Amino acid sequence: MATFTSHSDPSGSAIKMTTAPVERSSNFMNFLKPFFPSARGATTVMVLLISMAVKFAIGLGPYSGYQIDPMHGDFEAQRHWLEITTHLPINRWYFYDLQWWGLDYPPLTAYHSYILGLVGSFLNPEWFALGTSRALDDPQLKAYMRATVVFSELLVYIPPLLWYLSYKRQHDLHRNVTLGAILLAPPMLLIDHGHFQYNSVMLGFALFAICNFLYRNYLFGSMMFVMSLCYKQMALFYAPVVFAYLLGQCVISFRPLYFDLGRFLGISFITVSTFVCIFAPVVLSDGSSITRISTQFFQALHRIFPFERGLWEGKVASVWCAANAVIKIRERFSHEDLKLLSLIATAVASLPSCVFIFFSPLRVRNRLLVPALASCSLSFFLFSFQVHEKSILLPLMPLLLMLCDVRPDLELGSMIVWFTNLSTFSLWPLMQLDQLQLQFWVTWAMWNFLFIDQRMPLMPRSILLKIPVALSYLGMIATFIAEQVVVPPAKWPDLFVVANVVQTCAGLTVTWVFLHGYMISVMKDDFAIHKSKSK
Amino acid sequence: MDYKYSLIPQAIASIALKLLLFPAYKSTDFEVHRNWLAVTYSLPLRSWYFDNTSEWTLDYPPLFAYFEYCLSHIAKLIDPKIVQLNNLNYDSVSVIAFQRSSVIISELLLVSALSYLVNSLTYRPNGLARARRAFASALAVLLYPGFIIIDHIHFQYNGFLYGILVYSIAFALNKRYIACAASFTALLLFKHIYLYIAPAYFMFLLRSYALSQPTSFSKIAALTKTAFTVLFVVFVSFAPILVDTYLNDPTLDSVVDQLIQIKVRLFPFSRGLCHAYWAPNFWALYAFADRVLSFSYEILGISYSKISSSTRGLVGDTAFAILPQITPKMTFILSASLELLAMLKLLFYPSYERFLGCIVFCGFSSFLFGWHVHEKAILLPFIPMTLLSLHNRRILESYYPLVFSSVFSLFPLLFGTAEIGVKWFYSLSWILALVSSFNFLAPSITRRRFLLDRVSHAYNIGMIPVGLFLDFGPALPFIRNYSFLPLMIISVYCALGVIASWVSFSWLYFFTSF
């Protein structure tokens, strides 16, 4: 397919097309090519603007719990937090009417809600009036809330993303394609801008931390990671790897063991003091007596980590829920056993990535950080307690970041494409619930249409990966077709949801294995290069 | 190497965005078109132009009515309730999905027309560079935010109509004059707003086709051929309705009545000079001047006859307090004489580019000086000018103010809060893409008009605060008593841009060689 730059162009010859592919490139790249080399900077802005237009367009659709009595959904939860944070004194935030979407995220979410609530109340006080605004679905309120998600993302998520992309030295054209692929990835769009949540803020802080680590700003990076944790506890999925990474950076050498105590203490101090600063306003809100502080603190903690709620909520592609299709786990084991089991399994599964990160030499560690974050969060998704289907964003983000490392001779591109498709597929039951089918199909089809090319092919080359990937795609298609054709038997009303969950879980496991293989191959390559150099 | 340009990937990607706009706001035009589906489906042809069950009576020419007739038979298969005559303001999911996708699918005609235009340039002298520029222009047309705003949110069928227009232009380029005449006549019979640019076609066909034949016999033959083509298309499009009328009541009177009724529906003269929201044309400035004058008279204590205020005027009256009243005849004479001038220029210097320029000029004169102009009519000069803009850099410079004003002047169509994000970010990215690629692609010049450049830049940048004021101004407390202010400012500001674009383009059209 021809575009502008397929013709020889005197002024275009100046650009270095070293890494740009010579053969067929993706549709998205064909869109951008006309703007090279005349307007490179403008291209990034253009991609950002387009992605924002798409986000607003998705936002025109319904949101979770739209006009569904009695509890509505995540939209109402977020709106409700804007309402209570602006109207109640801070000491009641974690106590107020817990039955109606009580606050169950850490304080940074509450502060964010507070600011958004103040702005919103200035625009229209009725949107967040205490009590009377419950389950409000005014279109203007919806527009405001949608805009807050887009702009929060623009402020918190986009800057570190651009920073990360500039850290990875790529051809400008490829960088913009990667940016587009990350920004337009369907799960990101559908969960935050369709279903309605502010995950991009949490991911943005985590990404800020990653960028800071890569640029050796460990203190600022730790602070950012703590902020991510304090925005949504889900960032814990990344915590073991971040811990192993930082600890590894404190060990200058193993033989002889040389430990950089100053760095270690600095990081510890920053981490603890950021926690303290963020929690202080809530914890100290009742006064400074020990009992009051502990009541506030434990109430917040209790709200944030609801261990009594069970191993999973709804149907989610974790190992437990998928295995439940075969053995009724919750009947066989007690609640306490399950907690312990899940803890051990999560620890075991995330151990390898932590070990790789900790013991790998300095120069490899930075290359391993993002894949390790992906595999660790994947382990958490598969094995940990109280997982939501939306948590798929945590492994997805680092996997998408790995698009920067994609080369035509690696399997990585196809695996990232597959994982994105798989995670989109895993959202199908949620999208049906939210009436977002149109948005689901359009964003999914479009992402594949725009970004599939040689760097990001649909199918991996090696037969070992081809079989599971092909099976998985076939399974997805079969599930969608069956859903249209077959009526599920009365005995299993959730047949298709379970089918979805089992397939996704299997796919995630394959990805988990692949990521470890990938990390090992990175280490091996580095070892070989190092060896040949030292000769 | 194969140099065929394909617009299909871009079209598919834009369709994705358009699908996401299904739940967006839709104006009364949505119900207008639904009602036409019902009218054409339920009633015999003879009654189409007489029906007034709904207030949204059929007021487009016959071909559009047949188009709706075809659609209605598909609609019936999807949901029979769509085509029920008394089912007013029906807006179930099925009707929204059907009507919105009919816009998307019919717009494919524009895609094919643009590809035809671009690819027919490829094999000409200097064709590659021209085709490349034409491709950029074609993309700009295809992805124009105006289509998103008017067709896919507000709801109309401009996409495929402009597809027919582009086809007729491409036929003109390829010297397929008969096809050009036929397609343009068909376009007129789809929507009669294109009458305004008919003079350009008339003069082009006369001069480039008929008068440039070698012998006087072949001149007359060409003329007759063209005339017959036009008449044939007109006849074919009116025949079904007239035949149906005649068969029902075999008298000549009934047929004449039918024709008069169609004329009454198509040309309602009971409307005012300006629409409720002033389209950004000369009359917007005129009305604005009148308001400023009357306001200053009030302050100075000079008495004047208070007739009525022009923005508050109901449809049918736009009265000025101080400046002289404008009558339909005056606007007609003004725009007709301007178009005549453009025709004369085309008569003496015929070329494809001049023809395109003549279309642009006619579009401008009708938009700027016409009677009861809608803001949507900005497409009439805008689309042809986009196709012409990359011809040389001076045209490009006169085109930029129009780029900004043609997009931002459509913003008031979407007054809801939900669509603000889409319209702003989509428009900004389109403008950025257009400016950055067109600047690069246009042939370079040696001479720059330094000062005008700066003024034009300042104007374009100034559009952003004006647009922001339109969308967020009404939320400010001190604006609430002056709710007309944001609308008035944007329409006056855009009018300045359109007029600047028109003035500089007229200069180029009349006094330079293209």
TrEMBL record, chain A:
Membrane protein topology class: Multi-pass membrane protein
Protein name: Alpha-1,3-glucosyltransferase
Listed Pfam families: Alg6_Alg8
Molecular function in Gene Ontology: dolichyl pyrophosphate Man9GlcNAc2 alpha-1,3-glucosyltransferase activity
First-tier enzyme category under EC: transferase
Transmembrane residue ranges: 42-63, 111-131, 143-165, 196-215, 236-258, 264-284, 340-362, 368-388, 436-452, 464-483, 495-515
One GO BP: protein N-linked glycosylation via asparagine
E.C. number: 2.4.1.-
InterPro entries on file: Glyco_trans_ALG6/ALG8 (IPR004856)
Family: Belongs to the ALG6/ALG8 glucosyltransferase family.
Species this chain originates from: Tortispora caseinolytica NRRL Y-17796
Pathway recorded for this protein: Protein modification; protein glycosylation
Subcellular location: Endoplasmic reticulum membrane
Keyword terms, alphabetized: Endoplasmic reticulum, Glycosyltransferase, Membrane, Transferase, Transmembrane, Transmembrane helix
GO cellular component, one term: endoplasmic reticulum membrane
UniProtKB/TrEMBL annotation, chain B:
Record keywords, A-Z: Endoplasmic reticulum, Glycosyltransferase, Membrane, Transferase, Transmembrane, Transmembrane helix
Record has Endoplasmic reticulum as a keyword: yes
Known EC number: 2.4.1.-
Annotated GO CC locations: endoplasmic reticulum membrane
Location in the cell: Endoplasmic reticulum membrane
Alphabetical list of Pfam families matching this protein: Alg6_Alg8
Catalytic function, reaction form: an alpha-D-Glc-(1->3)-alpha-D-Man-(1->2)-alpha-D-Man-(1->2)-alpha-D-Man-(1->3)-[alpha-D-Man-(1->2)-alpha-D-Man-(1->3)-[alpha-D-Man-(1->2)-alpha-D-Man-(1->6)]-alpha-D-Man-(1->6)]-beta-D-Man-(1->4)-beta-D-GlcNAc-(1->4)-alpha-D-GlcNAc-diphospho-di-trans,poly-cis-dolichol + a di-trans,poly-cis-dolichyl beta-D-glucosyl phosphate = an alpha-D-Glc-(1->3)-alpha-D-Glc-(1->3)-alpha-D-Man-(1->2)-alpha-D-Man-(1->2)-alpha-D-Man-(1->3)-[alpha-D-Man-(1->2)-alpha-D-Man-(1->3)-[alpha-D-Man-(1->2)-alpha-D-Man-(1->6)]-alpha-D-Man-(1->6)]-beta-D-Man-(1->4)-beta-D-GlcNAc-(1->4)-alpha-D-GlcNAc-diphospho-di-trans,poly-cis-dolichol + a di-trans,poly-cis-dolichyl phosphate + H(+)
Record's keyword annotation contains Transmembrane helix: yes
InterPro entries listed in its UniProt record: Glyco_trans_ALG6/ALG8
An individual GO BP term: dolichol-linked oligosaccharide biosynthetic process
Parts of the chain that traverse the membrane: 103-122, 134-150, 157-173, 193-210, 222-243, 399-418, 424-446, 458-479, 485-511
Membrane topology according to the record: Multi-pass membrane protein
Sample GO molecular function, one term: dolichyl pyrophosphate Glc1Man9GlcNAc2 alpha-1,3-glucosyltransferase activity
Pathway listed: Protein modification; protein glycosylation
UniProt main location, coarse: endoplasmic reticulum
Family in the record: Belongs to the ALG6/ALG8 glucosyltransferase family.
Name of the protein described by the UniProt record: Alpha-1,3-glucosyltransferase
Organism: Tortispora caseinolytica NRRL Y-17796
